[in-house]
Write a structure and sequence with these properties.
Length: 437
């Protein structure tokens, strides 16, 4: 196992990296079908290049990924500068992360070599006096997205949205103003066609905005209800129409990603709308964040579709929901922050069983190899076999983490390797299997 410290790695300036900047070409195009998630970024090669993976659902179809690990399976671990909870994203050879140092006064974007764990470059995106933030959140929670040529990072009031070359040079940045959100930023940027889209829910002047991904020029901006929020949009193709779907305190809204025009709105049960909307076989599944009803929406329609398209809603009590749901094998799995896993029929909302996993949970689950993986804040990953009758735990995987490490970022499974990030370190399980295109 290799272990790296960030001390000693040089920070590349924009001028230095311009001389060596190169463009990486994409290797795959992800296609969608009707009533499935729309894989919008045609420039994204196979990998895990955005929040919750290629389609924003926590799923990957890759095979050969590790399902069992312990300290002996850690290929490398790297100390990261500062602290952060952004999930690792992977494109090609590089892993991208954000971090905040000096108590939030310095915001960083980093690229790590997935073969060795070496920090290839780290850029200081912003320095200044930090905004207010919740103690669980910090100042580097939004996850980057990458397209093979550029990396996009959002820091909210800490400078806004930044775009870097894959070799580390700053290409553009856009300050979108102070986000009146006393608990800090958490929404991650998403890519669709030539746009990078950022949700900016806040207690005042809330909006969602699209920028040209190459230039940073604003293309459209749509106002939203004023209330703080931390969800990330997904892209969904319903009967041939691509929709940008966003959870929020007042409900779920669907937009035309090309123009920002609102397609439809479904009222919620006033629960902050933190988790990401999660597609199932035919419905969109919504968990609010605070105790209230969870519900399912039939996609499509126009205007207020609450009465016509809300398929079911059932009470969800017993604590907060920070992790987003996971749909696997026609089962809807939701783990609360307190570690209670609920299994529900996605088409009816009927609860099938409920069980404790152990520990506290912030990270959203992932699925591969026919299994669902839930990582708690101590870095223990519970691997379960989906079953409609009971909880079947196949194994619990641990890491050689220090007692003060906190795991709130999601796993990044990609090309034979699992990347796991704590607030202080990045771990690799398995070795990168270089794809043959």
């Amino acid at each position: 196992m290799l272990s790296h410290s960030h001390s000693g790695f040089r920070t590349f300036s924009a001028a230095a990296t311009t001389a060596v900047r190169c463009l990486l070409l994409a290797g795959a195009v992800l296609l969608s079908s009707s009533s499935r998630v729309f894989a919008a970024d045609k420039d994204t090669a196979a990998g895990w290049s955005r929040w919750r993976g290629p389609e924003g659902t926590g799923h990957t179809s890759e095979t050969g990924l590790p399902l069992k690990w312990d300290a002996s399976a850690v290929t490398w671990q790297t100390d990261l500068p500062g602290l952060g909870h952004s999930s690792p994203v992977v494109h090609g050879r590089q892993v991208y992360l954000t971090s905040a140092d000096e108590g939030g006064r310095k915001r960083l974007v980093l690229a790590v070599d997935r073969r060795t764990g070496e920090i290839i470059w780290q850029e200081v995106a912003w320095t200044g006096e930090p905004e207010s933030s919740h103690k669980m959140n910090g100042f580097a929670t939004p996850t980057c997205c990458a397209d093979g040529e550029r990396v996009y990072a959002w820091f909210g009031s800490g400078g806004g949205l930044f775009c870097y070359s894959v070799t580390g040079g700053l290409l553009w940045s856009r300050d979108l103003g102070q986000q009146n959100n006393r608990w800090g930023a958490a929404s991650s940027p998403v890519l669709v066609d030539d746009l990078v889209i950022q949700l900016c829910d806040a207690d005042s002047d809330a909006f969602i905005v699209a920028l040209n991904r190459r230039t940073g020029k604003e293309v459209w901006r749509t106002t939203r209800d004023n209330f703080r929020g931390w969800s990330t949009p997904i892209l969904f193709d319903a009967a041939g129409r691509t929709e940008l779907i966003v959870n929020g305190h007042s409900g779920v809204r669907s937009y035309d990603p090309a123009t920002g025009k609102e397609y439809w709105f479904c009222r919620s049960f006033r629960g902050r709308g933190t988790p990401t909307v999660t597609p199932g076989p035919s419905l969109l599944h919504v968990v609010n964040g605070t105790p209230s009803d969870m519900y399912a929406i039939r996609p499509g329609g126009s205007g207020d579709i609450t009465d016509s398209h809300m398929s079911w809603h059932v009470p969800r009590r017993g604590g907060r929901d920070l992790p987003s749901p996971l749909v696997i094998d026609n089962l809807l799995l939701i783990v609360s922050m307190q570690g209670v896993l609920t299994c529900t029929e996605p088409e009816s909302g009927k609860e099938l069983w409920k069980a404790r996993l152990g520990g506290n949970f912030s990270a959203s689950p992932v699925a591969y190899g026919g299994r669902a993986l839930f990582t708690n804040e101590a870095g223990v990953t519970t691997v379960i076999q989906p079953d409609a009758k009971k909880l079947i735990v196949e194994r619990k995987n641990s890491l050689p983490a220090a007692d003060d490490e906190i795991f709130r970022a999601g796993l990044a499974p990609s090309e034979g390797q699992i990347l796991i990030r704590s607030d202080q370190k990045l771990y690799a399980i398995g070795s990168w299997q270089v794809p043959q295109y």
